[in-house]
Amino acid sequence: MALGPIHCGSFLLLAATVLLVVASISAPVVDHISFLNIYNGGQESTFGVFGYCTNLNSGTCSPRGLGYDIATASNAMTNYTYVNNSLTNLTNALVLHPVAAGIAFLSFLIALCSDHVGFLFASLIAFVAFLVSLVAMIIDFVMFGIIRHEINSNTSASASFSTAIWLTLAATVVLFFASFIVCFECFGSRRRNRDQQYVGNGYASSGPWWRRNNKY
């Protein structure tokens, strides 16, 4: 059976949910999934939603929590002093990743179980998930971009974006398209029902008008 719009829309919403969930369980939950990696000699530090790991070789990770001092953590392995309280406060907004995942999953459930107007409601929720994910993505690139620039410009260490930030970008793009595909299914479902009613009244569903059978 070919995939219809309902299948495509639901699949995209589920895919976006999975991408955001994986990004949300980044370091220190899963230390090798991160938004930013810093390499210095044989050491590697990773930064995630709920904390960071400063030395993967020794398994040293911060406690899991909302918000952390990202500037101090990034300086721990580079001996470079960089203080930015705004970035520390901005790490609290990383919680938007699991929030966006939850909203996307809610939209997926509604799209999976709905018909007609339900698709429109699911589309609206998917668009809200897209906006939340978009804000989270912008924060990711701004905050971790600043740290990457400071490390690469002022130390011998190397900093680069990692898996989680690209997963968030992909999820944002997927949610954008999914919100419209699910919306289109609302109108497509109405048209199919109208065609079925037309056939049920004794008319052919396709072909030129002179070939359609009229029960009268």
TrEMBL record:
It is found in: Membrane. The chain crosses the membrane at residues 94-112, 119-144, 164-187. Residues 1-23 form the signal peptide. It comes from Saitozyma podzolica. InterPro entries: pH-response_reg_palI/RIM9 (IPR051380), SUR7/Rim9-like_fungi (IPR009571). This is Pali-domain-containing protein. Keywords: Membrane, Signal, Transmembrane, Transmembrane helix. It comes from the Eukaryota. It is a multi-pass membrane protein. Pfam families: SUR7. GO terms for cellular component: cell division site; growing cell tip; plasma membrane.
